[in-house]
Design goal:
single chain, about 130 residues, eight-stranded antiparallel sheet
Length: about 130
């Protein structure tokens, strides 16, 4: 059985690595519709449409123009999420996303962070790095 540590992860916009990533989340969902009919004793459903969304949290880096700088509210980018690294043979998830929000936080005793929320548009694919 293989498992991995979060420190192996990488996030890219197309081929550009996003700097200072602390964490990311990816959520896949499927809508359902009910197809229960009279006489059924249990409700039944069918899966219809799938979607994905998530967020990337980074230490804020204003010099990362092709990574964090490319994630502006409303922008559409190709996001690649690598849970186990980006070496040959590593699995990753890829899809077109719309950046839906950016949250920046700072405290006197901590690092300045930026969290970029996204909504997938279209298919999410799972591939292997080459």
């Amino acid at each position: 059985m293989a498992n991995h540590t979060g420190s192996e992860g990488v996030v890219k916009i197309s081929t550009n690595t996003i700097a200072e990533v602390r964490s990311w989340t990816l959520t896949n969902t499927a809508d359902t519709i009910e197809d229960t009919t009279m006489g059924d004793s249990w409700r039944s459903f069918k899966s219809v449409l799938s979607a994905f969304s998530g967020q990337v949290t980074c230490y804020w880096d204003e010099t990362d123009t092709t990574g964090q700088g490319a994630l502006t509210s409303g922008s559409t980018v190709t996001l690649n999420l690598y849970p186990e690294g980006a070496s040959t043979g590593d699995t990753y998830y890829s899809g077109s996303v719309i950046v839906t929000s950016i949250e920046r936080t700072a405290s006197f005793d901590g690092m300045v962070e930026a969290t970029f929320a996204f909504q997938g548009t279209g298919t999410l694919s799972s591939s292997t790095a080459s």
